[in-house]
Amino acid sequence: MSLRINTNIQSQNALRNVSLTSDMMGRTIERLASGLRVNRAADDPAGLIISENLRAQITGLQQAVNNAQDAVNMIKTAEAALDEVHNALRTMRQLTLHAANTGVNDYASLQADQTQIRALIDSINRIAEQTSFGTKRLLDGTSGISAAVTDPTRISGIFIGGLFNNFPTASGAVTLQVTTAATRAAVPADDLREFPADTTLASLMGTPAGSVVINGYTITAEATETLASFIDKINAVSHITGVIAQYNNATRRIELRHREYGSQFRVNVQDQLGIILNGTTSVNVAGRNAVATVIANTVNGVQTVTFTGGLATGDSGLRLRDNFGNIIMLTEQGNDDSLAAAQVAIVTAGLLQFQVGANAGQFVRFSLIDVNASKLGTTVIPGQSLATIDVTQPNSTDDALRIIDAAIAEISKMRGDMGAFQRYILESNIRSLNVARENVMASESTIRDADFAVEISTFTKQQILMQSGMSVLAQANAAPQTVLQLLQRL
Residue 210: which of 277, 267, 258 has the closest Cα? Predict the structure, then answer.
């Protein structure tokens, strides 16, 4: 045992431990006061790095949620405008049906219908030009897809929506090649009777009169009429049967064919007396749909898609569709599978891009369509659109109805695409982002936030250590006084 006065090792040891306890108590008090386990980098360097990255993700996720919600509001704005376009188109269809009732209407009535139709067309154009979200135009083509025909000899109309082969459509040329040409339904020559053009029907039938049923419509043949008059009878009801007849001088036969191309249009002939059929009493033939390969640009590069005619009810075999509602109308000249692939149209795509994630590259794109009247219903009647409808012209209402129905289908597809984009991409993404944000916040909280139960326990321990340390320090400081007892004995 040694006693020293100048250097009190026990006191220094006690003081060092009291200082450590004091420092630890100060940090504990700081954690309790701030609620944070990591208040500075020295508290947990690795934890600070991780938590700062997580904090960046949290703020990014929150902003992504806000972005997606803004996108939802924009889509709702555009969809509401398209609902008004739908209302206008339904009214136009009603007016066209009224105008088609020519047995009752006079010209003044037709003019009144046309005046209202023109006002509705102007309203659609106004919606297209003025619908906006803030200052951003939505339906005038600047925020969406607009396709223009560049080769009118091969196609008469085109409608390209926001998706091509399930990828957002991008600007660029549209290339087409017909791989299968469409045909009209026609009775084979071998099934038709051959006879001179001036032959009377009586010499063929051997009976005073008879009839032929074409596509369910009965056409009576008088024994004394010529082939020319019988052909006129067939053609007079072609608007009902869809079948056209003509005499071929080379084959000396009456040829029967449908007016429309495609498999949906048939020629069904029932001829029990053999007036025009040879060797058979019935024939039922259908046309063939065109098939074409179409190449267009997307945000995922150039895509090649097969378009097929006659897919929708009542569609011509020349009206080609893909699986995403895109439509191309072939001309009769373009309905040729010997033609090489060539550019037929050009697409201008104004893509809407929405940042819906917390990191780079986490965005989605969507395109709206140009709803100006001149851009709607262009794939039905060559050279015509919604803007060209005029019900005051003779025999114009059927074409007008087909154009309006096509426009309704185009707007319906756009609204459906917008609804799917809003529900299954934006709103689903918002829900997903909120869950991700919650879990990232939980991870960040584990690293940065103080556990009060642990900190209170630590603080209690440190209080006791501080009190005991101070007591021990006082005892250590008093220890050198024992040297005085030795000195008093001298």
Answer: 277
**pLDDT for position 489:** 59
Report the alpha-carbon angle 402-403-405, nearest 5: 65
The predicted model gives 303-331 an average pLDDT of 91
Neighbours of 326 (CB within 10 A): 26
Which backbone phi and psi does 182 adopt, to 5 degrees? -75, 150
Q: What SS3 class is residue 171?
A: coil
Check pLDDT > 70 for residue 200: no
- How far apart CA 38 and CA 30 sit, in angstroms, is 10
Q: How far apart are CA 399 and CA 176, in angstroms?
A: 26
Given the DSSP bridges, would you call strands 319-321 and 327-330 parallel, antiparallel or unpaired? antiparallel
Do strands 155-159 and 319-321 pair parallel, antiparallel, or not at all (unpaired)?
A: unpaired
DSSP string, 326-384: -EEEE-TTT--TTSPPEEEEEEEE--EEEE-SSSTT-EEEE-EE---GGGSSTTTSTT-
* Token reading at 166: 């399930």
Position 206 pLDDT exceeds 50: no
How many residues in the chain? 490
**The amino acid at 438:** E
DSSP assignment of 102-144 equals TTT--HHHHHHHHHHHHHHHHHHHHHHHH-EETTEE-SSSTTE
Average pLDDT for residues 232-237, to the nearest whole number? 91
* Both tokens assigned to 114: 């046309």
DSSP string, 35-63: -BS-SSGGG-HHHHHHHHHHHHHHHHHHH
For residue 340 the two structure tokens come to 């090489």
On the CB side of 36, how many CA atoms lie within 13 Å of its CA? Answer: 12
Contact predicate 162/186, CB 8 Å = no
Read off the pLDDT band of 2 (50, 70, 90).
Answer: low
| Domain extent listing, the chain | 36-142+355-449, 185-286
- CATH T-level fold of 36-142+355-449: f41 fragment of flagellin, N-terminal domain (1.20.1330)
Distance CA 68, CA 121 (A): 33
Please tell me the chain's helix, strand, coil percentages from 3-state DSSP, rounded to the nearest 5: 45, 25, 30
Lowest-pLDDT choice from 42-46, 285-289, 386-390: 42-46
What does the pLDDT look like over 392-415, one tens digit per residue? 888 889 899 999 999 999 899 889
Domain at 185-286, CATH class: alpha beta
